[in-house]
Amino acid sequence: MPGTERQGGSEVVEKPKSVSKRPQLYHVVLINDDYTTMEFVVRTLEEIFDKGPAEAYRVMMEVHMRGRGVCGAYSFEVAETKVGAVHDLARAEGFPLRAGIEEA
């Protein structure tokens, strides 16, 4: 029988190896607007996305210059939570900053 070995009268049956699939990742994207300050965007990137000051500044400039910037790649549930946190923080501070989710 293939996949078995005989040792001292007992059989050892090999289990097929299971292949685990990585979860689909989604980008969280910040969308530029004419009212949210650059300082607030940097603070948001540092607080919600755990970016260092240099990386937060780089992403903020991408948002400012290109109209959008990718903050990170996450599972769908984490991405949803991060988008909600951005909207809650922006609303609390009186800014219209928006975030969205895109397939990575």
Account of the 3D structure:
By secondary structure, the chain is of the alpha+beta class. It has a domain at about 40-95: Ribosomal Protein L30, Chain: A, CATH 3.30.1390. The protein has helices at about 40-50, 55-65, 75-95, and strands spanning about 5, 10-15, 25-30, 70-75, 100-104. Strands 4-3-5 form a three-stranded antiparallel beta sheet. A two-stranded antiparallel ribbon has the order 1-2. Strand 1 and strand 2 (about 10-15) form a beta hairpin. Helix 1 (about 40-50) crosses helix 2 (about 55-65). It is elongated and about 75 Å long.
* Terminal CA distance: 45 Å
* Rounded radius of gyration (Å): 23 Å
Major beta sheet, strand line-up: 4-3-5
- Percent strand: 25-35%
Proportion in helices: 40-55%
Uncertain stretches of 5 or more adjacent residues: none
The CATH superfamily of the domain at 38-97 bears the name Ribosomal protein L7/L12, C-terminal domain/Adaptor protein ClpS
Task: Based on the coordinates given, report the CATH architecture of the domain at 38-97.
Answer: 2-Layer Sandwich
Q: What is the subunit organization of this protein? A: single chain
Going by helix content, strand content and strand pairing, the class is alpha+beta
Could you give the order of the helices and strands?
EEEHHEHE
Average residue-wise pLDDT: 91
Largest sheet: 3 strands, antiparallel
CATH class of the domain at 38-97: Alpha Beta
